[in-house]
Amino acid sequence: MRKILVTGGTNFVSRFTAEYFAALGDEVYVLNRGNRPQSQGVVHLKGDRNALGNLLKEHRFDAVLDITAYTGGDVRNLVNGLGGFGEYILVSSSAVYPESTEKPFREESPIGYNSVWGGYGAGKIKAEEELVRRVPNAYIIRPPYIYGPMQNLYREAFAFDCAEAERAFVLPEKEGMKMQFFHVEDLCRFMNLLLEKKPSTRVYNVGNRECVTVREWVKRCYEAAGKVPAFTKAPVGHGIRSYFCFYDYEYSLDVSRMSALMPRTKPLSEGLKEEYEWYSVHRDEMVMKPYIEYIDKLMK
Hints:
Blueprint: E1 3-7, H1 12-23, E2 27-32, E3 43-46, E4 60-66, H2 72-81, E5 84-91, H3 119-134, E6 139-142, E7 145-147, H4 156-164, E8 169-171, E9 178-183, H5 184-197, E10 203-205, E11 211-213, H6 214-224, E12 231-233, H7 240-243, H8 256-261, H9 268-281, H10 291-298
Parallel strand pairs: 1-2, 1-4, 2-3, 4-5, 5-6, 6-10, 7-9, 8-12
Antiparallel strand pairs: 9-11
Helix pairs in contact: 1-5, 2-3, 4-6, 6-9
């Protein structure tokens, strides 16, 4: 049995991660402020990662899975607050690559400010840099869009809602824009592989090798809900984020380094069905966005 610390533990990726490793039989501790319900089968350490005091000093963790670091300070304060620990895995982001960098992004590609992701990407860069300084042997994972059960961002759920209402889906102007996804369970599987195999390489892009267009993504979301989509186009001159759940931004990650360790990932259609089944009984956990309301006004 491993003793594992998961930062967060109450929302999407961190919550799924905590429950995934607990189901493997690990002794899982979650660090959060206690503002939301806690998962069953984990030990809750109530505290703020940026004001830890001696909360963690008495523990020796076999692994730290840092899901909720968004700044250099987040990493610095957590590392300073830890007692002993073994492996450290940081879930970073593909947002650390500038949009001007040649695609697909490779781990060796330069990182830098991405104007699409703004402060989020800049913060992740600082988190990575701080971790490399303080824990040189830590692992850094850079995913694309993460999806799956426990997703609380109104992305796939938006398409599911449109499907259930049998609405024609409003496509953005660049309907051929490609997007890359990674199932949250695959993320956990890969973290577990790193803990088990302890490869010498420290930075990994992760994600499905297959990218899909906006139109294809909508089609698969509707299929997960048992529907077939009809499509329409938004009138010119409306900001994409007013009526669509992703940015007007196409990129792709080279995931060959990940694939050498984990050749197979969950097919998007299968993962979307799992997410739809979860959403069907957890609608109240979604952070809603007024896309449909905007569309209804737009199309009058």
